[in-house]
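Hey,

Quick one before I head out. I ran the complex with flavin mononucleotide overnight. Inputs first:
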Amino acid sequence: MQKFYDKTDINAKKYLTGSSFIDYRTQPRAFKKFPTFFLSYDLDEFEELKFIKNIGKITASKTYGNVKVDLRANPSAGGLYPSEIYIQLRGIKSLVNGIYHYEALENRLTLIHELSNDGVEFYFEDKTQKKIIFLISNAYFRSAWKYEKRAIRYILLDSGHLLGSIYAALELENLPFNINFNFDKKSLNEDFSFDNFEAFYTSVFTQIHKELECKKLRTQIVNVCACDYQLKEKFIEEFYENSLKDDFPIVSNIEFLKGIKKEDLQKAIDTRRSIRAFKKEPISKEEFLFITKDIFEFAQKYEIEIYFINNNIKEMKKGLYKNVELQKEGDFKEIATKLGLNQKLSGDSAVTLFFTSKNSENIFYLYILSGFISQILYLRSTLLNISCSGLGAYFDDLSKEFLETSNNIFYLFTIGK
Ligand SMILES: Cc1cc2nc3c(=O)[nH]c(=O)nc-3n(C[C@H](O)[C@H](O)[C@H](O)COP(=O)(O)O)c2cc1C
């Protein structure tokens, strides 16, 4: 596991000698579309399902030259959106029980498999029927096209952010949220005919539908290419094969967004954005504590250690903290910028967090959970009109040196005004 991970680092030497030319005309398509003969439904026609739009809908668009880029409710490294979402639904009024592909850009669900006595529950240890199951897939080429080996990190973080979006959407409906990484991924992916180009590693389930056990999917699911073209990346497929385990505890009883008014949460989902430049204004300690409430405890439960550089939180000593303990006092804005691959966001923020872990066995899942926590940070910051951005590009070696840790560095997250 660690040996794969080490090949995805950015170190100071590699950075200076590497080439970075990217021909954007060759960017693969970032959405999947089934042929029009598949039945498809507008989410707005189903009161019970409207909330699903909050996971991936378009919330803004930007124009670069002549090119219009749609931005979605969930953030994504490089705006490449390498994940797709499939939803198995049971007992929804006027909708056949089935497996649906979520067409985020069109707010639609496309029926790709009608259920009988079968279901995706079959691939899990607990095979009883669930009301809603979300399956998040990774179509790795969308990201590998640009980021090559390092794409594995961004894809996992993106999956984590999507988990956060699903959690927020379910929270609006007071529906339970349980993350389950444990299922027979090989068989399920085979039955979805993905041929490894796309694959499921993450799922969410809500409540029990009926105490009935499901059978294996009775037919293969039709697949269409997740991109308009794709290339096999052996390294990434081998990484997946070597890192999958089926014994990570189910993550439940999450209360990160409890007590927030529904309309405020809805507004945060609709307006969340990644900041492109901070004005270098401070945030208060109270704001910092609201944004990070219960985050450090949750992270530590899964052996994720969060360091942070306090650049500009009022009423707190400036310096480097590990979890919540001050390690080194001082003004580290310049070094923070450098560690973040010279991105100004990292030094101009009020605070820059570093997600790290010494657990190299579970890198795969801890990465996803780091993305999940970060999505909570996005939403809570937005609730306070405070800006933020994930930073997937940073120097691994220099960050470890400055933090004085041998932990793997997973992700940087900047918060400020
Ligand atoms: C995993 C991940 C890594 C990211 N890394 C960077 C980064 O290194 N620098 C940066 O400026 N933005 C980064 N971003 C922000 C994305 O550029 C941004 O999410 C994307 O352009 C879509 O914009 P939005 O978040 O405003 O919807 C990252 C986002 C994610 C989810």
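The two ends are 38 Å apart (CA to CA).

Talk tomorrow,
K.
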